[in-house]
Design a protein that fits this description.
Blueprint lengths: L3 H5 L2 E4 L5 E11 L4 E11 L6 E7 L3 E4 L3 E4 L12 E3 L1
Parallel strand pairs: 1-6
Antiparallel strand pairs: 1-2, 2-3, 3-4, 4-7, 5-6
C-alpha cells in the first residue's frame, strides 16, 4: 500500500525518451470502484500571464512505479504527445 504523499515525491519520466514531466499534483479517482483513473501533474505556464495547465496521465500509461520515479509511456492515441489530455 502507498500513500498519496509517497507518490507525490516521485518524479514522472517518459520511458521512450527520458523526458522529465514533473511530480504528481493530484489524482483522478473513480469513487464508485475506488480506483485511480489518472495522475494529475502541473504543466508549464503559457507566457508571462498564462495559466498553468493540469495534465492527466491515464493509469494505463504507467509502466512501473519505482522507489523514486514513475515511468510512463506516451499515449497510444497520440504518440507525438507525452500525455493523454489536459484536465479542464
Amino acid at each position: 500500500m502507498m500513500k498519496l504523499s509517497e507518490l507525490q515525491v516521485k518524479e514522472i519520466i517518459v520511458v521512450e525518451d527520458g523526458k522529465r514531466l514533473g511530480h504528481i499534483f493530484d489524482l483522478e479517482l473513480d469513487v464508485d470502484n475506488g480506483k485511480i483513473l489518472s495522475l494529475i501533474i502541473m504543466g508549464k505556464k503559457a507566457g508571462l500571464f498564462g495559466k498553468i495547465d493540469e495534465i492527466a496521465i491515464r493509469w494505463e500509461q504507467i509502466v512501473t512505479i519505482g522507489s523514486d520515479v514513475i515511468l510512463v509511456r506516451r499515449s497510444e492515441n497520440s504518440p507525438q504527445l507525452y500525455l493523454q489530455n489536459e484536465v479542464k
